[in-house]
Amino acid sequence: MALADLHTKIDLQNSSQLSYVSTRLSYNHRISLRPLPQPHNSRICCSVTSKEVQAPVTVNTEEPKKKPDCYGIFCLTYDLMAGEETKSWKKLINIAISGAAGMISNHLLFKLASGEVFGPDQPIALKLLGSERSFEALEGVAMELEDSLFPLLREVSIGIDAYEVFQDADWALLIGAKPRGPGMERADLLDINGQIFAEQGKALNAVASRNVKVIVVGNPCNTNALICLKNAPDIPAKNFHALTRLDENRAKCQLALKAGVFYDKVSNVTIWGNHSTTQVPDFLNAKINGIPVKEVIKDTKWLEEEFTEMVQKRGGVLIKKWGRSSAASTAVSVVDAIRSLVTPTPEGDWISSGVYTAGNPYGIAEDIVFSMPCRSKGDGDYELVKDVIIDDYLRSRIKMTEAELLAEKRCVAHLTGEVRIKFPSSRILQLTL
Amino acid sequence: MALADLHTKIDLQNSSQLSYVSTRLSYNHRISLRPLPQPHNSRICCSVTSKEVQAPVTVNTEEPKKKPDCYGIFCLTYDLMAGEETKSWKKLINIAISGAAGMISNHLLFKLASGEVFGPDQPIALKLLGSERSFEALEGVAMELEDSLFPLLREVSIGIDAYEVFQDADWALLIGAKPRGPGMERADLLDINGQIFAEQGKALNAVASRNVKVIVVGNPCNTNALICLKNAPDIPAKNFHALTRLDENRAKCQLALKAGVFYDKVSNVTIWGNHSTTQVPDFLNAKINGIPVKEVIKDTKWLEEEFTEMVQKRGGVLIKKWGRSSAASTAVSVVDAIRSLVTPTPEGDWISSGVYTAGNPYGIAEDIVFSMPCRSKGDGDYELVKDVIIDDYLRSRIKMTEAELLAEKRCVAHLTGEVRIKFPSSRILQLTL
């Protein structure tokens, strides 16, 4: 059941929540809603049995909105309509980036600013979110952006408060998260990063554009995206993406290598499920030169075992070789992901993105964020691709990654606002507040 | 006196050198010329009095040419003329990059591969030069390039031998050098990096395209470029550049900030001289909205003192803020520098580049690499701008940076092949071998 429907039901049942909920649903007249600080849970609750946990509470603190600090040259005001070259440009868009002082952002920001993502007539504002610890580095990034003289980059602001930085964001690229180091467990990441994405979801809900598109890159990105969207009930859940484009790109490259063709000949590659080692790179629906991969690569053992493992483990191999995670190619894949939403998907092809499963046609569990094949008309929105084949092998793999995501979801129930009540009959009733 | 002229003279005077020199001058039928390894000078000779030092010797070892290792997907051969989309593309160009595993390259390579530098119809081959120590990181970079699926990137090869990697290079972007850390003296860099650039000059001379364009980024870049061109006598000295574009960009930004205009309104900014703290950002010839800067910014004290210092020290400030040197904006400025050679310079404007001073119209000492105002027709070549004003203030600053470069040149005499013989009359005769 979608969140909005439930709100309505709660309204009818519980009049004491009425003013709070109606404020949350007020799309046009927004008030900065800032939750009271909550103590950080040092341990996450991963029990599958019931446990009453506190749902996220959004409280209107009625603090005045504060703009993040503009930086240097970008504090100038100007009228783009006044310039001969700039008056044909589109309206400025606001792009918020978390983890802006990190390595992925350090690649991504300069790509965004250069115009290669949104095109040569799209001026942009970059809103950089960092931490207190990284604030000086954030200033360094802003200085380097100044020194790069990008004509399309018209505003840069920096801040450490998501409620300020996400103000009117048209895009939110959520990169900031503790990165996965060598040997680090996924559960550790869930614990560390979940709180951050709950907070950022609330901030987006309070201050971002109602049509903001959110791409979550910080790992574990599927579950972080779920936490984020659950904490932003006024923004359509469909607007939230978890980045699996790097996995798709890697899968294309490995299929091309095996087939002895260049990577531009590979299409229709889906990454199913979680951006983790359970991800399922789909060779059943993929094509090489328009021909099904299985007709081109006859080595089924390679496809079922080595290929999948190669894609799943590519990140780890790179960390070993390079000594750090793959910032540059991750940034490239974020660019690819954005471009795929703002330009029409080529005829007959599709792209992979981790999106909300509500109403999916594949029988995947509802109410998680799962990578699936998508097509876009280039309007920022997407639709799920219907004409895909799912055989027993693929189904079994999808089930495994689905199970992982459901387990992750249970681990972060305290952050998504799910309260489970165990009845004596051990039937579980699940309420979404 | 140019090197080529001297070779001819030596030929006539010394027949024992004839076969060696004529091989060096054979443009069309090239043989891989590899010098015998020379002991590394642990201390540099910086005496201005005479000292006989060994000139660089190029010896034909007649080793077979070896191609650097192609990487993964890029080992495939393909016929670009066979594809519907690719048959209208230009001929593949070879771009060699030294220090390819470093941070500047990590930004630059992905910009080159994306097509934003050479355009959407220019396929490229990237030839990555690293060191034995960085070889695994180099593989990591190649893997990330694979995973980025850039359609225009058709070849990637990696190697640690400049004689292999520079083979047929159309562009050589020489980034690799020990970077200047906080508090490091410029003299330390001269010592450490000079040998590298002498060797790379020899390698370019032996195997690169006769029309290769070389951009030296590794510091001290002016003197490194001088060393490099002196060791590549068969390549026109005019083809060597030392990067001062980042300084130009920084100067534009600071002028814009002071004038309260956006940086796209600032033009005709020259950086004169050395890419060091003696560099001279020229506000005399610079314009804001087409008006001389001095008519827009009346604060002469700021222009003469603060502005110059701000530009000169920007790099140091950034190192402090950011904890490392400014890789991203340096890469952007390399892109700017290349673009300025392959696209016509906008009417009335110019760009700064550290180029060989032979025949310069400004009265700057001959036979050094000095940043000066250049214009290009977009053919890869450039001409020096003649209509610039030089007043007493500017002249005195230019003299200071010239003096620094002449001193640097003396310090690397053992690497440029200059032998000084002190006569009893203390008249100094300078021979260029």
Topology:
The structure is a homodimer of 433-residue chains.
Chain A: H1 3-13, H2 18-25, E1 69-70, E2 93-98, H3 103-114, E3 124-129, H4 135-147, E4 153-159, H5 162-165, E5 171-174, H6 186-207, E6 213-216, H7 221-230, E7 240-242, H8 245-259, E8 266-267, E9 270-272, E10 280-282, E11 287-288, E12 291-292, H9 293-296, H10 300-322, H11 327-342, E13 351-356, E14 369-375, E15 383-384, H12 392-411, H13 413-416, E16 418-422, E17 428-432
Parallel strand pairs in A: 2-3, 2-5, 3-4, 5-6, 6-7
Antiparallel strand pairs in A: 1-4, 8-11, 9-10, 11-12, 13-14, 14-15, 16-17
Helix pairs in contact in A: 1-2, 3-11, 6-7, 8-10
Description:
The structure is a homodimer of 433-residue chains. With 433 residues, the first copy, chain A, is α/β, with parallel strands linked by helices. The first copy, chain A, folds into 2 domains: 69-77 and 90-242, NAD(P)-binding Rossmann-like Domain (Rossmann fold), CATH 3.40.50.720; 245-411, Alpha-Beta Complex (L-2-Hydroxyisocaproate Dehydrogenase, Chain A, domain 2). Helix content of chain A is 37%, strand content 16%. The first copy, chain A, contains 13 helices and 17 strands. Chain A has helices spanning 3-13, 18-25, 103-114, 135-147, 162-165, 186-207, 221-230, 245-259, 293-296, 300-322, 327-342, 392-411, 413-416, and strands at residues 69-70, 93-98, 124-129, 153-159, 171-174, 213-216, 240-242, 266-267, 270-272, 280-282, 287-288, 291-292, 351-356, 369-375, 383-384, 418-422, 428-432. In chain A, the strands form 5 sheets. The first copy, chain A, has a 7-stranded mixed β-sheet, sandwiched between helices. A 3-stranded antiparallel β-sheet of chain A has the order 8-11-12. Chain A has a 3-stranded antiparallel β-sheet with strand order 13-14-15. In chain A, strand 3, helix 4 (135-147) and strand 4 form a beta-alpha-beta unit. In chain A, helix 1 (3-13) packs antiparallel against helix 2 (18-25), helix 6 runs parallel beside helix 7 and helix 8 crosses helix 10. The first copy, chain A, is globular. Chains A and B meet through helix 3, helix 4, helix 8, helix 10 and helix 11 of A and helix 3, helix 4, helix 8, helix 10 and helix 11 of B. Chains A, B: One of its GO terms (molecular function) is L-malate dehydrogenase (NADP+) activity.
